[in-house]
Design the sequence.
């Protein structure tokens, strides 16, 4: 998922190019997941709050996945924790809602 | 109040799906059109003075980001070289700054380029919106899967003057907006990162492009160089290397 650039040691000194590349791959994986998750939520027929809970559940699973991908040392790949936790979550919400309503009307 | 409405499947086939398909295709088209319009614009040789100033800004930025890797003395010398009030590279005399601004406003070429960029964004959106308004207004088109409060009625059901319809039923205009925002993610996936929607941001970052005000970015760079706290990282590095080596030896 998040195979960005190669970074140096676990000292908080990061190459900006690598950091942006890593953040971009987080953003792409989140966008992809929100679209797929929207379709899945629509097919399973979630409505109302359940769907949003499902979305945030997916995003939490994604965070755990990213954490595992970064071998549990976030400081090696990102400048702070919020990158893994919230980067792209709210941007993906609109995509999720759109692709959630597609299957429901068919 | 919350009675189930049955939406005609013809609405789905002839309104919602065509609208989505059209919006995706327009997004793809806009991407390629803006790509075509960009390539000839790069060929005329830019003003050497502009290029020089852009390079100075990039050099100063490199100094700022890598400041921790050089000793304090070296950093100070470089800082003076850039920000010195008399002949520092980043220092812009007052009259020059005003002149540059005036030149930017009077240059028709630059304005044209910016117009083109904006037009490629605005024209398709306006056209699609007008198309949606003209053909598909006045009826409930879709049901979004979550309930909303009464306040959203004006936004999601404009064109329908019924106060008893549940707010989760939306008009085609709202479906258009939902598509407009929701497809952004899809575009970034299918068109890659050079998406037309984040073109504007990239232009800002590059600085060398159109609508770039040299005096302003020079001044901004000077300010950020002035306030930087210098902290040499290399002594810490030695200790860090020692730690790593010790750890390796233990294994």
Sequence:
């Amino acid at each position: 998922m998040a195979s960005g650039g190669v970074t140096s040691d676990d000292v908080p000194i990061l190459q900006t190019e690598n950091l942006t590349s890593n953040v971009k791959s987080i953003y792409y994986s989140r966008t992809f997941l929100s679209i797929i998750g929207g379709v899945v939520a629509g097919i399973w027929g979630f409505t109302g709050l359940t769907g949003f809970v499902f979305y945030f559940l997916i995003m939490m699973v994604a965070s755990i996945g990213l954490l595992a991908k970064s071998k549990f040392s976030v400081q090696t790949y990102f400048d702070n924790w919020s990158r893994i936790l919230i980067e792209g979550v709210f941007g993906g919400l609109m995509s999720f809602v759109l692709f959630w309503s597609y299957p429901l009307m068919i | 109040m919350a009675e189930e409405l049955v939406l005609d499947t013809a609405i789905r086939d002839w309104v919602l799906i065509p609208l989505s398909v059209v919006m995706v295709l327009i997004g793809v088209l806009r991407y390629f059109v803006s790509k075509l319009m960009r390539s000839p614009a790069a060929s005329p040789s830019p003003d050497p003075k502009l290029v020089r100033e852009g390079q100075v800004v990039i050099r100063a930025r490199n100094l700022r980001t890598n400041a921790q890797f050089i000793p304090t003395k070296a950093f100070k010398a470089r800082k003076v070289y850039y920000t010195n009030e008399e002949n520092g590279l980043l220092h812009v005399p007052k009259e020059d700054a005003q002149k540059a601004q005036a030149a930017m406003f009077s240059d028709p070429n630059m304005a044209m380029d910016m117009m083109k960029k904006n037009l490629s964004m605005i024209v398709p959106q306006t056209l699609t919106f007008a198309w949606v308004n003209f053909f598909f207004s006045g009826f409930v088109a879709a049901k979004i899967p979550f309930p909303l409060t009464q306040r959203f009625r004006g936004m999601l059901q404009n064109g329908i003057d019924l106060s008893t319809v549940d707010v989760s039923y939306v008009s085609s205009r709202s479906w258009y907006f939902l598509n407009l925002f929701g497809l952004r993610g899809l575009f970034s996936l299918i068109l890659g990162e050079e998406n037309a929607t984040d073109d504007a941001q990239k232009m800002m970052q590059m600085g060398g492009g159109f609508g770039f005000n040299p005096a302003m970015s020079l001044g901004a760079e000077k300010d950020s160089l002035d306030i930087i706290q210098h902290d040499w990282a290399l002594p810490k590095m030695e200790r860090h290397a020692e730690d790593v080596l010790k750890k390796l030896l233990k294994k």
